[in-house]
Specification:
Length: 636
């Protein structure tokens, strides 16, 4: 097939770039999409239409965004640098609206933030229906801004201001579903066949019941089951999440092209990072849990190709909360060079670090680290301590079983962690169980990081232990390799907000406990060193500053687990031993001081780098290595 698309709409200099990118990507893109949608005459026409639209949107990129694209084509590793720090917030809870976010840029720059993830701000399901839209994750329009939060003009102003401050805006792009009042769903409800084909709709419970046999549940309490009866259609609709979030049907190629083009349109408004929500669920297959299916990966790879052709400055972030073994595939494959998303949440690292804190024992965390492979070029982890969702313990089932020796004991370990953060009277933590009425299952835990670390008051002296725990958790996220993400409020150790319990539209979803409004009073008194907020903010800034200075912390630099001789101390080395810019990172997950043997660590470093004892004595590196250990212990 001839792939010569007309580039007449581009200026002469852009034609050359565009031709090169098409040459690099178009054959692969076509192969991927035809492997999912089939080689038919209809496919050819659909594919040509898709590319024509992709090129049209590429031609509409502004000069400022074209400049950004070229910069990033020249420096594709821009987001892998050790100075990358992310921040995540709900627009309204952070700053009322998009205009308010612009006013908060100085707060972000003070923290060294280079990437700002604003939780959903596209027009969401109408709250006057029944008050619910899953915090904006039920999207009613991919092209409009939620009126409560601002206008499209506000978005353009904000992205411009963020670019000037060297901060990339990240927006949620929900791939798996739309709200039941999205125009596609409304058209389906009105009986339009073409739009009914955008969804998975069943006349009765036969097939839903068959699927249910192997499906899991995301919200077992608030939204049990994966199908909802729609009284307008008098049919069953696939709704993995809430009943008003209708799963899109990606076996329909039109769904894919509509979504891909909507994403490019928003990219043209200056969004630089897309958080692709619920990527794991895109493809359904009877007899499976309908997660992580090969077709879902192929479609994500195709979106990567499309973005690289039309908006190469843009990067994609996978939100796939899946077992450790299934996670790396969302970033592609280092051995074949296959590319998928640029960034992915490391949910296993996050969850296992909370397990380690509850058990004062690091074996599970080490197992997760060992199961984390080397990533392909231009790929990175997103390392977080908390986010707007629960800590899902189930992603750790495999590691827990292996470490504990049996499935029963593995489950018990995770249950123990869950109880520790919820109900255990002897624990320091103040969290709650998420969506599990059955005390024998392990689902999730909710709570602000500070509360889970035991911080309850504003008195810095009283809360020193809790502050140290919080810094330990953030220290790990900052050193592991990837973009560390600060969740709004954690920089000033904000604690749980239980006011959601009073609101009937939110009271059933405990995640609202960790979605407070920014405590501006605490922000205004950061100079008061007796306050927890001030101490945490200061230590976090210090940690970020240290990290910026050390190239060994760049995302793609090597990482090797070390045996520290103590099951309470996590150890790993970042960077290249032979180039001697490495950093040894040690994390004490216990509440006591623990001594580790410096010489035992040095011996391991020798083995890792293949340096023999005599050559090492000769070049004096033993002393330097010890030095670096002390330094880092001091830092943390
Ligand atoms: C994502 O979540 C979002 O982060 C949630 O806030 C939304 O409710 C959800 O999608 C629906 O849009 O597994 O891959 O707390 O971890 O719902 C999708 C449970 C997801 C979340 C889960 C998650």
């Amino acid at each position: 097939m001839n792939h010569s698309f007309s580039l007449a709409r581009f200026s002469e200099s852009r034609q050359i770039d565009m031709q090169r990118r098409l040459d690099q990507r178009i054959t692969g893109l076509r192969q991927k999409l035809s492997s999912v949608y089939g080689e038919t005459a209809q496919f050819d026409a659909w594919f040509e239409g898709l590319i024509d639209n992709v090129l049209e949107l590429a031609s509409q990129r502004s000069d400022a965004l074209l400049a950004l694209d070229s910069q990033r084509v020249e420096n594709p590793d821009w987001f892998l640098h050790q100075n990358m720090v992310g921040y995540c917030a709900y627009v309204d809870r952070f700053a009322d609206n998009l205009q308010g976010v612009k006013q908060r840029i100085p707060h972000l720059t003070q923290l060294g933030v280079r990437y700002l993830h604003l939780l959903p701000f596209f027009r969401a399901r109408d709250l006057t229906i029944d008050g619910e839209n899953d915090g904006g994750f039920a999207v009613a329009s991919f092209d409009e801004i939620e009126p409560r939060l601002g206008t499209h003009a506000d978005l353009l102003t904000l992205t411009e201001a963020l670019r000037a401050a060297n901060i990339s805006l990240c927006a949620d792009f929900v791939l798996n579903h739309v709200a039941d009042d999205h125009p596609w769903a409304l058209a389906a409800q009105q009986g339009q066949q073409a739009y009914q084909e955008f969804f998975h709709i069943f006349p009765d419970r036969d097939r839903p019941d068959q699927y249910e046999q192997s499906l899991g549940q995301v919200f077992p309490q608030a939204a049990p089951g994966n199908f909802s009866y729609d009284s307008r259609l008098e049919k069953w609709v696939w709704t993995t999440f809430y009943p008003y979030q209708w799963d899109l049907n990606y076996t329909n190629p039109v769904v894919f092209s509509e979504i891909a083009l909507a994403l490019l349109r928003m990219a043209n408004s200056g969004i630089e990072v897309f958080r692709l929500d619920s990527t794991a669920f895109l493809w359904k297959r009877m007899g499976t849990n309908c997660m992580n299916q090969p077709e879902a990966h192929i479609l994500l790879q195709a979106i990567r190709d499309i973005v690289t052709i039309a908006a190469p400055g843009v990067i994609l972030k996978a939100e796939a909360i899946v077992p450790t073994a299934d996670l790396p595939a969302y970033l592609g494959d280092a051995s074949t060079g296959l590319q998928e998303c640029h960034i992915a949440y490391h949910s296993s690292l996050m969850a296992s670090s909370w397990v380690a804190l509850s058990e004062q024992k690091v074996d599970l965390l080490q197992a997760v680290m060992r199961a984390t492979p080397v990533l392909p070029a231009q790929a990175s982890w997103l390392n977080y301590v908390r986010c707007h969702d629960d800590i899902g313990w189930n992603v750790l089932r495999a590691e827990a079983n292996a470490c504990a020796g049996s499935e029963k004991q593995g489950l018990e370990r995770l249950q123990h962690a869950s109880e520790f953060y919820t109900s255990d009277a002897s624990s320091f933590a103040d969290g709650e169980r998420f969506q599990a009425s059955d005390p024998h299952t392990v689902h999730g835990t909710v709570g602000m990081a500070a509360s889970l670390c035991g911080i309850r008051t504003e008195d810095a002296q009283l809360e020193e232990k809790g502050i140290q725990r919080l810094m330990l958790m953030y220290g790990l996220a900052m050193s592991f390799g990837g973009i560390p993400l600060i969740y709004m409020g954690d920089e000033i150790a904000q604690t749980n907000d239980r006011s959601y319990c009073e609101d009937p539209a939110r009271s059933f979803d405990g995640r609202w406990m960790q979605r407070p409004t920014l405590n501006t009073e605490a922000l205004a008194s950061l100079s008061n060193k007796n306050k927890v907020a001030s101490v945490v903010h200061h230590r976090l800034c210090h940690l970020i500053h240290q990290r910026q200075q050390l190239p060994a912390f760049a995302a793609q630099r090597a990482r090797q687990v070390m045996e520290t001789g103590s099951d309470k101390i996590l150890g790993f080395v970042r960077g290249a031993l032979l180039e001697r810019d490495h950093v040894v990172c040690l994390f004490n997950f216990s509440s006591e001081d623990v001594t580790v043997s410096g010489s035992a660590l040095v011996q391991q470093l020798n083995v890792m780098s293949g340096v023999t004892a005599s050559s090492q004595d000769h070049n004096g590196s033993r002393a330097e290595w010890l030095e670096s250990i002390h330094n880092y212990v001091d830092v943390l």
